Amino acid sequence: MEFLFQAFARAIKIILSLDREFVSIVCLSLRVSGLAVLAATITGLGLSLCLYQSKGRIRRIIVPLLNTSMGLPPVVVGLFLYLLFSRTGPLGRLNLLYTPTLMVIAQWVLATPIIAALSCSALESSDPDLRLTALGLGATEFQATLKVLKESRYALFSSIAAGLGRVIAEVGAVLIVGGNIAGYTRVMTTAIALEADRGDFVLAIALGIILLGISLLINVALYTFQKRSPVD
Amino acid sequence: MIEQIEARGILKGFNDRFRLECSLSLEAGCVHVLIGPNGSGKSTLMRILSLIERPDSGTLIYRGKRQYVDPFSEIELRRRVVLVNTRPVVFRESVLENVLYGLKIRKVSRREALRRAEHALKRVGLYEMRNESATGLSSGEKQRLSLARAIAVEPDVLMLDEPTVNLDPENTGVIEQVILSLKDPERIILFVTHNLFQARKLADQVIFISNGTILEQSSKDRFFVSPETEEARRFIRGELY
Protein backbone atom coordinates (compact mmCIF):
# COMPACT_ATOMS: atom_id res chain seq x y z
CA MET A 1 0.00 0.00 0.00
CA GLU A 2 2.88 2.33 0.90
CA PHE A 3 4.40 1.65 -2.50
CA LEU A 4 1.16 2.81 -4.13
CA PHE A 5 1.04 6.05 -2.12
CA GLN A 6 4.68 6.76 -2.95
CA ALA A 7 4.07 6.11 -6.63
CA PHE A 8 1.07 8.47 -6.58
CA ALA A 9 3.07 11.16 -4.79
CA ARG A 10 5.88 10.93 -7.35
CA ALA A 11 3.34 10.94 -10.18
CA ILE A 12 1.81 14.18 -8.85
CA LYS A 13 5.34 15.62 -8.68
CA ILE A 14 5.88 14.77 -12.36
CA ILE A 15 2.61 16.48 -13.27
CA LEU A 16 3.41 19.60 -11.25
CA SER A 17 7.00 19.81 -12.48
CA LEU A 18 5.77 19.69 -16.10
CA ASP A 19 8.41 17.12 -16.96
CA ARG A 20 9.46 17.56 -20.59
CA GLU A 21 8.81 13.96 -21.67
CA PHE A 22 5.50 13.93 -19.84
CA VAL A 23 4.35 17.20 -21.47
CA SER A 24 5.38 16.08 -24.96
CA ILE A 25 3.40 12.83 -24.56
CA VAL A 26 0.28 14.66 -23.36
CA CYS A 27 0.56 17.29 -26.14
CA LEU A 28 0.96 14.63 -28.86
CA SER A 29 -2.04 12.71 -27.51
CA LEU A 30 -4.19 15.82 -27.56
CA ARG A 31 -2.97 16.78 -31.04
CA VAL A 32 -3.55 13.33 -32.55
CA SER A 33 -6.94 12.76 -30.92
CA GLY A 34 -8.03 16.36 -31.47
CA LEU A 35 -7.26 16.24 -35.20
CA ALA A 36 -8.82 12.80 -35.54
CA VAL A 37 -12.04 13.92 -33.85
CA LEU A 38 -12.13 17.13 -35.89
CA ALA A 39 -11.87 15.12 -39.11
CA ALA A 40 -14.34 12.52 -37.79
CA THR A 41 -16.80 15.28 -36.87
CA ILE A 42 -16.73 16.63 -40.42
CA THR A 43 -17.12 13.21 -42.06
CA GLY A 44 -19.43 11.79 -39.40
CA LEU A 45 -21.79 14.75 -39.39
CA GLY A 46 -21.73 14.86 -43.20
CA LEU A 47 -22.56 11.17 -43.40
CA SER A 48 -25.34 11.46 -40.81
CA LEU A 49 -26.86 14.37 -42.72
CA CYS A 50 -26.81 12.37 -45.96
CA LEU A 51 -28.47 9.45 -44.18
CA TYR A 52 -31.02 11.74 -42.52
CA GLN A 53 -32.05 13.07 -45.91
CA SER A 54 -31.89 9.76 -47.75
CA LYS A 55 -34.64 7.19 -47.74
CA GLY A 56 -35.05 3.52 -48.52
CA ARG A 57 -32.49 0.83 -49.20
CA ILE A 58 -29.23 2.80 -48.82
CA ARG A 59 -30.22 3.91 -45.36
CA ARG A 60 -31.34 0.42 -44.36
CA ILE A 61 -27.93 -0.94 -45.36
CA ILE A 62 -25.65 1.81 -44.04
CA VAL A 63 -27.22 2.49 -40.64
CA PRO A 64 -26.77 -1.10 -39.31
CA LEU A 65 -23.23 -1.10 -40.77
CA LEU A 66 -22.45 2.11 -38.92
CA ASN A 67 -23.91 0.79 -35.70
CA THR A 68 -21.78 -2.34 -36.01
CA SER A 69 -18.69 -0.25 -36.77
CA MET A 70 -19.11 1.59 -33.48
CA GLY A 71 -17.62 -1.48 -31.83
CA LEU A 72 -14.67 -1.86 -34.22
CA PRO A 73 -11.77 -3.42 -32.30
CA PRO A 74 -8.91 -0.86 -32.38
CA VAL A 75 -6.29 -3.59 -32.86
CA VAL A 76 -8.08 -4.80 -35.98
CA VAL A 77 -8.21 -1.26 -37.36
CA GLY A 78 -4.52 -0.89 -36.50
CA LEU A 79 -3.65 -4.17 -38.17
CA PHE A 80 -5.64 -3.31 -41.30
CA LEU A 81 -3.96 0.09 -41.60
CA TYR A 82 -0.56 -1.47 -40.90
CA LEU A 83 -1.05 -3.86 -43.82
CA LEU A 84 -2.21 -1.02 -46.05
CA PHE A 85 0.64 1.33 -45.19
CA SER A 86 3.53 -1.09 -44.60
CA ARG A 87 6.34 -0.94 -47.15
CA THR A 88 4.89 -3.84 -49.15
CA GLY A 89 1.30 -2.65 -48.76
CA PRO A 90 -0.69 -0.83 -51.48
CA LEU A 91 -0.16 2.57 -49.78
CA GLY A 92 3.40 1.87 -48.60
CA ARG A 93 4.83 4.51 -50.96
CA LEU A 94 3.27 7.22 -48.80
CA ASN A 95 5.71 6.41 -45.96
CA LEU A 96 3.11 7.07 -43.28
CA LEU A 97 3.74 4.03 -41.10
CA TYR A 98 5.01 4.99 -37.61
CA THR A 99 4.04 8.62 -38.06
CA PRO A 100 1.53 10.74 -36.11
CA THR A 101 -0.37 11.22 -39.40
CA LEU A 102 -1.24 7.53 -39.61
CA MET A 103 -2.20 7.60 -35.92
CA VAL A 104 -4.64 10.41 -36.74
CA ILE A 105 -6.02 8.32 -39.62
CA ALA A 106 -6.44 5.28 -37.35
CA GLN A 107 -8.30 7.28 -34.74
CA TRP A 108 -10.38 8.96 -37.43
CA VAL A 109 -11.45 5.48 -38.65
CA LEU A 110 -12.46 4.58 -35.10
CA ALA A 111 -14.28 7.84 -34.29
CA THR A 112 -16.19 8.37 -37.55
CA PRO A 113 -18.74 5.54 -37.13
CA ILE A 114 -19.43 6.60 -33.54
CA ILE A 115 -20.03 10.23 -34.45
CA ALA A 116 -21.99 9.33 -37.59
CA ALA A 117 -24.22 6.72 -35.94
CA LEU A 118 -24.98 8.78 -32.83
CA SER A 119 -25.53 11.96 -34.89
CA CYS A 120 -27.82 10.09 -37.27
CA SER A 121 -29.82 8.80 -34.33
CA ALA A 122 -29.94 12.35 -32.87
CA LEU A 123 -31.20 13.80 -36.15
CA GLU A 124 -33.76 11.03 -36.57
CA SER A 125 -35.10 11.65 -33.09
CA SER A 126 -35.48 15.39 -33.75
CA ASP A 127 -39.01 16.64 -34.26
CA PRO A 128 -40.15 15.52 -37.74
CA ASP A 129 -42.11 18.75 -38.16
CA LEU A 130 -39.07 20.90 -37.43
CA ARG A 131 -37.83 20.79 -41.00
CA LEU A 132 -41.33 21.44 -42.35
CA THR A 133 -41.66 24.43 -40.03
CA ALA A 134 -38.40 25.95 -41.25
CA LEU A 135 -39.36 25.32 -44.90
CA GLY A 136 -42.81 26.76 -44.23
CA LEU A 137 -41.16 29.96 -43.01
CA GLY A 138 -39.27 30.28 -46.29
CA ALA A 139 -36.00 28.50 -45.50
CA THR A 140 -34.11 26.82 -48.33
CA GLU A 141 -33.36 23.08 -48.01
CA PHE A 142 -29.87 23.99 -46.76
CA GLN A 143 -31.16 26.52 -44.22
CA ALA A 144 -33.77 24.02 -42.98
CA THR A 145 -31.02 21.41 -42.54
CA LEU A 146 -28.90 23.91 -40.60
CA LYS A 147 -31.90 24.60 -38.39
CA VAL A 148 -32.37 20.90 -37.68
CA LEU A 149 -28.64 20.65 -36.84
CA LYS A 150 -28.87 23.65 -34.54
CA GLU A 151 -31.92 22.28 -32.77
CA SER A 152 -30.14 18.93 -32.29
CA ARG A 153 -26.91 20.56 -31.09
CA TYR A 154 -26.97 19.04 -27.59
CA ALA A 155 -27.25 15.48 -28.87
CA LEU A 156 -24.68 16.17 -31.61
CA PHE A 157 -22.21 17.47 -29.06
CA SER A 158 -22.72 14.24 -27.09
CA SER A 159 -21.84 12.20 -30.16
CA ILE A 160 -18.63 14.20 -30.69
CA ALA A 161 -17.71 13.81 -27.02
CA ALA A 162 -18.32 10.05 -27.30
CA GLY A 163 -15.98 9.96 -30.32
CA LEU A 164 -13.28 11.86 -28.43
CA GLY A 165 -13.72 9.64 -25.38
CA ARG A 166 -13.26 6.57 -27.51
CA VAL A 167 -10.07 7.66 -29.33
CA ILE A 168 -8.21 9.36 -26.53
CA ALA A 169 -8.39 6.19 -24.44
CA GLU A 170 -7.60 3.73 -27.23
CA VAL A 171 -4.26 1.96 -27.34
CA GLY A 172 -4.38 -0.89 -29.86
CA ALA A 173 -4.51 1.01 -33.13
CA VAL A 174 -2.01 3.76 -32.28
CA LEU A 175 0.42 1.21 -30.89
CA ILE A 176 0.41 -0.81 -34.13
CA VAL A 177 0.51 2.08 -36.61
CA GLY A 178 2.55 4.51 -34.46
CA GLY A 179 5.11 2.10 -33.06
CA ASN A 180 5.29 3.96 -29.71
CA ILE A 181 8.50 5.82 -30.70
CA ALA A 182 9.72 8.02 -27.85
CA GLY A 183 9.35 11.72 -28.59
CA TYR A 184 7.65 11.06 -31.94
CA THR A 185 4.65 8.73 -31.77
CA ARG A 186 4.40 7.98 -28.05
CA VAL A 187 0.99 8.99 -26.72
CA MET A 188 -0.52 8.67 -23.25
CA THR A 189 -2.08 5.24 -23.69
CA THR A 190 0.92 3.62 -25.37
CA ALA A 191 3.25 5.19 -22.80
CA ILE A 192 1.12 3.82 -19.95
CA ALA A 193 1.20 0.35 -21.51
CA LEU A 194 4.99 0.53 -21.95
CA GLU A 195 5.77 1.89 -18.48
CA ALA A 196 3.48 -0.64 -16.81
CA ASP A 197 5.23 -3.38 -18.78
CA ARG A 198 8.58 -2.11 -17.56
CA GLY A 199 7.36 -2.00 -13.97
CA ASP A 200 7.90 1.79 -13.82
CA PHE A 201 4.52 2.89 -12.64
CA VAL A 202 5.21 6.53 -11.77
CA LEU A 203 4.97 8.00 -15.27
CA ALA A 204 2.13 5.57 -16.04
CA ILE A 205 0.15 6.83 -13.05
CA ALA A 206 0.87 10.47 -13.94
CA LEU A 207 -0.38 9.92 -17.48
CA GLY A 208 -3.36 7.93 -16.16
CA ILE A 209 -4.34 10.85 -13.94
CA ILE A 210 -4.22 13.22 -16.93
CA LEU A 211 -6.20 10.78 -19.07
CA LEU A 212 -8.87 10.48 -16.40
CA GLY A 213 -8.82 14.26 -15.98
CA ILE A 214 -9.46 14.75 -19.70
CA SER A 215 -12.35 12.25 -19.63
CA LEU A 216 -13.77 14.04 -16.61
CA LEU A 217 -13.44 17.41 -18.36
CA ILE A 218 -15.23 16.11 -21.45
CA ASN A 219 -18.07 14.78 -19.33
CA VAL A 220 -18.37 17.91 -17.19
CA ALA A 221 -18.46 20.05 -20.36
CA LEU A 222 -21.09 17.73 -21.82
CA TYR A 223 -23.18 17.80 -18.65
CA THR A 224 -22.99 21.59 -18.39
CA PHE A 225 -23.91 21.99 -22.06
CA GLN A 226 -26.86 19.62 -21.77
CA LYS A 227 -28.10 21.33 -18.61
CA ARG A 228 -28.48 24.46 -20.72
CA SER A 229 -30.79 22.56 -23.07
CA PRO A 230 -34.34 23.82 -22.62
CA VAL A 231 -36.76 21.03 -21.78
CA ASP A 232 -39.73 20.66 -24.13
CA MET B 1 -47.95 40.88 -54.56
CA ILE B 2 -49.51 37.55 -55.56
CA GLU B 3 -52.96 38.16 -57.00
CA GLN B 4 -53.92 34.62 -57.81
CA ILE B 5 -52.79 31.04 -57.34
CA GLU B 6 -54.07 28.60 -59.89
CA ALA B 7 -53.59 24.86 -59.54
CA ARG B 8 -54.38 22.82 -62.65
CA GLY B 9 -54.54 19.03 -62.62
CA ILE B 10 -52.41 18.64 -59.52
CA LEU B 11 -51.67 14.98 -58.93
CA LYS B 12 -49.91 13.39 -55.99
CA GLY B 13 -49.96 9.67 -55.24
CA PHE B 14 -48.90 7.70 -52.19
CA ASN B 15 -48.16 4.04 -53.08
CA ASP B 16 -51.63 3.36 -54.52
CA ARG B 17 -53.12 4.00 -51.08
CA PHE B 18 -54.14 7.59 -51.68
CA ARG B 19 -54.20 9.92 -54.62
CA LEU B 20 -54.68 13.67 -54.56
CA GLU B 21 -56.09 14.96 -57.83
CA CYS B 22 -57.37 18.51 -57.94
CA SER B 23 -57.64 21.92 -59.55
CA LEU B 24 -58.48 25.14 -57.78
CA SER B 25 -57.98 28.86 -57.78
CA LEU B 26 -57.21 31.19 -54.87
CA GLU B 27 -57.71 34.96 -55.13
CA ALA B 28 -56.13 37.80 -53.15
CA GLY B 29 -58.38 39.60 -50.66
CA CYS B 30 -60.23 36.42 -49.76
CA VAL B 31 -60.07 34.06 -46.83
CA HIS B 32 -60.39 30.61 -48.36
CA VAL B 33 -61.35 27.85 -45.99
CA LEU B 34 -60.43 24.32 -46.99
CA ILE B 35 -62.66 21.73 -45.35
CA GLY B 36 -63.12 18.02 -45.74
CA PRO B 37 -63.09 14.73 -43.86
CA ASN B 38 -59.94 13.33 -42.23
CA GLY B 39 -57.47 11.88 -44.71
CA SER B 40 -58.96 13.74 -47.66
CA GLY B 41 -55.63 15.34 -48.64
CA LYS B 42 -55.94 18.79 -47.07
CA SER B 43 -52.45 18.88 -45.53
CA THR B 44 -50.83 17.47 -48.66
CA LEU B 45 -52.56 20.11 -50.75
CA MET B 46 -51.39 22.79 -48.30
CA ARG B 47 -47.78 21.62 -48.58
CA ILE B 48 -48.01 21.69 -52.38
CA LEU B 49 -49.61 25.14 -52.50
CA SER B 50 -46.98 26.36 -49.99
CA LEU B 51 -44.30 25.22 -52.47
CA ILE B 52 -42.79 22.79 -49.96
CA GLU B 53 -43.76 19.56 -51.69
CA ARG B 54 -43.77 19.06 -55.45
CA PRO B 55 -46.77 17.29 -57.00
CA ASP B 56 -46.17 14.28 -59.26
CA SER B 57 -47.74 16.23 -62.11
CA GLY B 58 -49.91 19.25 -62.81
CA THR B 59 -49.31 22.97 -63.07
CA LEU B 60 -49.16 25.48 -60.29
CA ILE B 61 -49.23 29.10 -61.41
CA TYR B 62 -48.59 32.06 -59.15
CA ARG B 63 -49.79 35.27 -60.78
CA GLY B 64 -48.80 38.76 -59.76
CA LYS B 65 -46.82 41.39 -61.63
CA ARG B 66 -44.88 38.38 -62.85
CA GLN B 67 -46.32 35.00 -63.66
CA TYR B 68 -44.49 32.08 -62.05
CA VAL B 69 -45.15 28.88 -63.95
CA ASP B 70 -42.51 26.88 -62.06
CA PRO B 71 -42.86 28.53 -58.67
CA PHE B 72 -40.92 25.79 -56.83
CA SER B 73 -37.62 26.98 -58.23
CA GLU B 74 -38.20 30.61 -57.22
CA ILE B 75 -36.88 31.06 -53.69
CA GLU B 76 -37.91 34.72 -53.61
CA LEU B 77 -41.47 33.68 -54.40
CA ARG B 78 -41.36 30.87 -51.82
CA ARG B 79 -40.47 33.46 -49.23
CA ARG B 80 -43.68 35.34 -49.92
CA VAL B 81 -45.63 32.23 -48.95
CA VAL B 82 -45.79 31.06 -45.32
CA LEU B 83 -47.26 27.86 -43.93
CA VAL B 84 -48.37 27.51 -40.29
CA ASN B 85 -48.66 23.86 -39.29
CA THR B 86 -51.26 22.07 -37.22
CA ARG B 87 -48.78 21.20 -34.51
CA PRO B 88 -46.71 24.22 -33.57
CA VAL B 89 -42.99 23.51 -33.50
CA VAL B 90 -40.95 26.11 -31.67
CA PHE B 91 -37.20 26.47 -31.83
CA ARG B 92 -35.06 26.05 -28.71
CA GLU B 93 -34.49 29.75 -28.28
CA SER B 94 -36.34 32.76 -26.93
CA VAL B 95 -39.81 33.72 -28.13
CA LEU B 96 -38.34 36.79 -29.85
CA GLU B 97 -35.59 34.79 -31.59
CA ASN B 98 -38.25 32.40 -32.89
CA VAL B 99 -40.03 35.28 -34.58
CA LEU B 100 -36.76 36.69 -35.90
CA TYR B 101 -35.92 33.43 -37.71
CA GLY B 102 -38.05 34.06 -40.80
CA LEU B 103 -36.74 37.63 -40.98
CA LYS B 104 -33.10 36.58 -40.66
CA ILE B 105 -33.35 34.16 -43.58
CA ARG B 106 -34.89 36.99 -45.62
CA LYS B 107 -31.91 39.14 -44.66
CA VAL B 108 -34.09 41.88 -43.16
CA SER B 109 -31.93 44.40 -41.26
CA ARG B 110 -31.70 43.74 -37.50
CA ARG B 111 -33.45 46.99 -36.62
CA GLU B 112 -36.37 46.43 -39.00
CA ALA B 113 -36.55 42.76 -38.00
CA LEU B 114 -36.82 43.68 -34.32
CA ARG B 115 -39.54 46.23 -35.09
CA ARG B 116 -41.55 43.70 -37.10
CA ALA B 117 -41.01 40.86 -34.60
CA GLU B 118 -42.11 42.97 -31.65
CA HIS B 119 -45.14 44.21 -33.55
CA ALA B 120 -46.11 40.62 -34.45
CA LEU B 121 -45.71 39.50 -30.84
CA LYS B 122 -47.94 42.36 -29.66
CA ARG B 123 -50.62 41.29 -32.13
CA VAL B 124 -50.75 37.76 -30.74
CA GLY B 125 -50.38 38.89 -27.12
CA LEU B 126 -46.93 37.42 -26.47
CA TYR B 127 -44.86 40.61 -26.34
CA GLU B 128 -44.42 40.43 -22.56
CA MET B 129 -43.00 36.90 -22.91
CA ARG B 130 -40.54 37.80 -25.68
CA ASN B 131 -37.43 36.96 -23.67
CA GLU B 132 -38.72 33.66 -22.29
CA SER B 133 -37.73 30.27 -23.68
CA ALA B 134 -40.21 29.27 -26.37
CA THR B 135 -40.13 25.62 -25.31
CA GLY B 136 -41.73 26.56 -22.00
CA LEU B 137 -44.87 28.01 -23.59
CA SER B 138 -48.25 26.29 -23.42
CA SER B 139 -49.70 24.69 -26.59
CA GLY B 140 -51.94 27.70 -27.22
CA GLU B 141 -49.06 30.13 -26.75
CA LYS B 142 -46.87 28.06 -29.06
CA GLN B 143 -49.53 28.25 -31.76
CA ARG B 144 -49.81 32.01 -31.24
CA LEU B 145 -46.03 32.17 -31.57
CA SER B 146 -46.26 30.22 -34.86
CA LEU B 147 -48.73 32.79 -36.08
CA ALA B 148 -46.46 35.65 -34.95
CA ARG B 149 -43.56 34.11 -36.93
CA ALA B 150 -45.81 34.10 -39.98
CA ILE B 151 -47.15 37.63 -39.48
CA ALA B 152 -43.66 39.08 -38.98
CA VAL B 153 -42.55 38.18 -42.50
CA GLU B 154 -45.61 39.94 -43.95
CA PRO B 155 -46.42 37.17 -46.46
CA ASP B 156 -48.45 37.63 -49.63
CA VAL B 157 -49.85 34.14 -49.13
CA LEU B 158 -50.65 32.77 -45.69
CA MET B 159 -51.52 29.09 -45.34
CA LEU B 160 -52.81 27.85 -41.98
CA ASP B 161 -53.24 24.13 -41.48
CA GLU B 162 -55.76 23.66 -38.65
CA PRO B 163 -54.04 26.18 -36.38
CA THR B 164 -56.68 26.03 -33.66
CA VAL B 165 -57.10 22.29 -33.31
CA ASN B 166 -56.92 21.17 -29.65
CA LEU B 167 -56.75 24.76 -28.40
CA ASP B 168 -58.87 26.26 -25.65
CA PRO B 169 -61.54 28.86 -26.58
CA GLU B 170 -59.38 31.78 -25.44
CA ASN B 171 -56.41 30.90 -27.65
CA THR B 172 -58.76 29.95 -30.50
CA GLY B 173 -60.41 33.36 -30.19
CA VAL B 174 -57.07 35.19 -30.29
CA ILE B 175 -55.97 33.28 -33.39
CA GLU B 176 -59.30 33.83 -35.18
CA GLN B 177 -59.14 37.55 -34.45
CA VAL B 178 -55.59 37.79 -35.76
CA ILE B 179 -56.53 35.91 -38.93
CA LEU B 180 -59.46 38.22 -39.56
CA SER B 181 -57.19 41.23 -39.00
CA LEU B 182 -54.75 39.84 -41.56
CA LYS B 183 -57.39 39.92 -44.29
CA ASP B 184 -56.07 42.28 -46.89
CA PRO B 185 -56.86 42.99 -50.57
CA GLU B 186 -53.23 42.10 -51.32
CA ARG B 187 -53.08 38.85 -49.39
CA ILE B 188 -54.30 35.32 -50.08
CA ILE B 189 -55.28 33.37 -46.97
CA LEU B 190 -55.98 29.65 -47.04
CA PHE B 191 -57.19 28.14 -43.80
CA VAL B 192 -57.83 24.48 -43.05
CA THR B 193 -60.37 23.62 -40.38
CA HIS B 194 -62.66 20.83 -39.29
CA ASN B 195 -64.79 23.24 -37.35
CA LEU B 196 -67.83 24.27 -39.42
CA PHE B 197 -68.65 27.16 -37.07
CA GLN B 198 -65.14 28.47 -37.54
CA ALA B 199 -65.45 28.05 -41.30
CA ARG B 200 -68.67 30.10 -41.29
CA LYS B 201 -66.99 32.75 -39.15
CA LEU B 202 -63.80 33.16 -41.18
CA ALA B 203 -64.50 32.12 -44.75
CA ASP B 204 -65.24 34.17 -47.83
CA GLN B 205 -64.78 31.13 -50.03
CA VAL B 206 -65.15 27.48 -49.06
CA ILE B 207 -63.22 24.70 -50.76
CA PHE B 208 -64.55 21.22 -50.03
CA ILE B 209 -62.23 18.27 -50.56
CA SER B 210 -63.03 14.59 -50.18
CA ASN B 211 -60.91 11.53 -51.06
CA GLY B 212 -58.24 13.68 -52.68
CA THR B 213 -60.65 15.46 -54.99
CA ILE B 214 -61.99 18.99 -54.72
CA LEU B 215 -65.73 18.61 -55.03
CA GLU B 216 -66.80 22.21 -54.48
CA GLN B 217 -65.36 25.69 -54.45
CA SER B 218 -67.92 28.37 -53.81
CA SER B 219 -68.86 31.33 -51.63
CA LYS B 220 -69.52 30.60 -47.96
CA ASP B 221 -73.25 31.39 -48.24
CA ARG B 222 -73.72 29.21 -51.27
CA PHE B 223 -71.78 26.30 -49.79
CA PHE B 224 -73.58 26.24 -46.47
CA VAL B 225 -77.07 26.99 -47.86
CA SER B 226 -77.10 24.90 -51.00
CA PRO B 227 -74.12 22.55 -51.33
CA GLU B 228 -73.91 20.90 -54.72
CA THR B 229 -72.70 17.43 -53.79
CA GLU B 230 -74.09 14.75 -51.54
CA GLU B 231 -70.69 14.42 -49.77
CA ALA B 232 -70.74 18.12 -48.87
CA ARG B 233 -74.31 17.83 -47.57
CA ARG B 234 -73.31 14.83 -45.44
CA PHE B 235 -70.20 16.68 -44.18
CA ILE B 236 -72.29 19.70 -43.16
CA ARG B 237 -74.78 17.41 -41.40
CA GLY B 238 -71.84 15.88 -39.48
CA GLU B 239 -72.14 12.46 -41.11
CA LEU B 240 -68.63 12.51 -42.63
CA TYR B 241 -65.54 12.87 -40.43
How would you sum up this structure, described in words?
The complex is a heterodimer of chains A (232) and B (241). In chain A, helix 5 runs antiparallel to helix 8 (153-168), helix 5 (100-124) runs antiparallel to helix 9 and helix 6 packs across helix 7 (141-151). Helix content of chain A is 78%, strand content 0%. Chain A has helices at residues 2-17, 20-53, 57-69, 74-85, 100-124, 128-136, 141-151, 153-168, 172-178, 188-198, 201-227. Chain A is built from eleven helices and no strands. Chain A has a single domain, classed as MetI-like (MetI-like fold, Orthogonal Bundle), CATH 1.10.3720.10. With 232 residues, chain A is mostly helical. Chain B is of the alpha/beta class and 241 residues long. Chain B has a domain at 1-80 and 188-241: P-loop containing nucleotide triphosphate hydrolases (Rossmann fold, 3-Layer(aba) Sandwich). Chain B has helices spanning 42-49, 75-78, 95-105, 110-123, 139-152, 169-182, 196-202, 220-225, 230-236; strands at residues 2-14, 18-27, 31-35, 57-64, 67-68, 81-84, 157-161, 188-192, 205-210, 213-219. Chain B has a six-stranded mixed beta sheet, sandwiched between helices. In chain B, strands 2-1-4-5 form a four-stranded antiparallel beta sheet, covered by helices on one side. In chain B, a hairpin with a 2-residue loop joins strand 4 and strand 5 (67-68). At the A-B interface, helix 6 and helix 7 of A face strand 6, helix 3 and helix 5 of B.
